[in-house]
Amino acid sequence: MNAWRERWALSPDVTYLNHGSFGASPRVVLEARAKFATELAAEPVDFLVRQAPGRLLAVRERLAALVGAKAGDLILTDNATAGMNLVARSLPLTPGDEVLLCDHEYGAVLRLWRKTCARAGATLNVVKLPWPLASPEQVAQSFAAAISARTRLVVVSHVTSPTALILPVAEVVRVAHAQGIAVAIDGPHALAMLPLDLTGLGADFYTASCHKWLAAPLGTGFLHVAPRWQHCIDPLITSWGGDNARPERQAAG
Ligand SMILES: Cc1ncc(COP(=O)(O)O)c(C=O)c1O
């Protein structure tokens, strides 16, 4: 058997090309995950209350180094979908506001913003990009032309799902920020495909899944939040989370 194939648990009669939807995990990742599951089963309270918070903070440091971010600007999530839902839940939208995205966005992202805008009485404006695209400039120009006085947010993929384009996100951030408009980047396919410098990019929000091209375990992702937005972030699920990470809470645990 091919040496690379042996590193994966995929069925030998399958040629698996769709890591962009649900990445299969290599054996080494499956084994590490199984080891953690065994540790958890052996002493759930010790694992979850005393061990997990420090380990999650260490993971955040490693991830931050990989994506060019400060660890404190990253929230670990289950996937990019959870990250984008956090943005939709936290961003203050009022009636009459507008959210812009383009016609190359992922279906679930489009549904999320359609629903979020409808709830807030805001408008979702789907910008049609020229096709075929002749230059990266056309993308930023298309967004610039669609921006109005009511635009509050631009949502844009780093690498598009239906059309596999690398969009010029730095240029989109520049154009939107010039008008004081926030940008949320949907980046699950960029992680491990493109070098990332999230602090340098300067977007307001950047979300990705680690279980696609990075081959991390299923159910791993992050949301990067620029410091100016961090006070707005409203967790999707309210529980002990933040408290568990506090040393005095661990001591009391
Ligand atoms: C562009 C894009 N955004 C978001 C997602 C959602 O990713 P996940 O299901 O890991 O949250 C996908 C999934 O393929 C995608 O292609």
Quick structural summary:
Helices cover 40% and strands 14% of the residues. The protein is of the alpha/beta class and 253 residues long.
Task: Give your account of this protein's structure.
There is one protein chain. The chain has helices at about 5, 25-40, 45-65, 80-90, 105-120, 135-145, 170-175, 200, 240-245, 245-250; strands at about 75, 100, 125, 150-155, 180-185, 205-210, 220-225. A 7-stranded mixed sheet has the order 1-7-6-5-4-2-3, with helices on both faces. Helix content is about 40%, strand content about 15%. The chain starts with a helix and ends with a helix. The chain is an alpha/beta fold. It is built from 10 helices and 7 strands. Pyridoxal-5'-phosphate binds near residues 106 and 186.
Nearest-integer average pLDDT: 94
The computed structural class is: alpha/beta
How many distinct helices? Answer: 10
Shape: globular
Distance N to C terminus:
49 Å
| Strands ordered across the widest β-sheet | 1-7-6-5-4-2-3
- The topology string of helices and strands comes to HHHEHEHEHEHEHEEHH
Largest sheet: 7 strands, mixed
Low-confidence blocks of residues: 248-253
Oligomer status: single chain
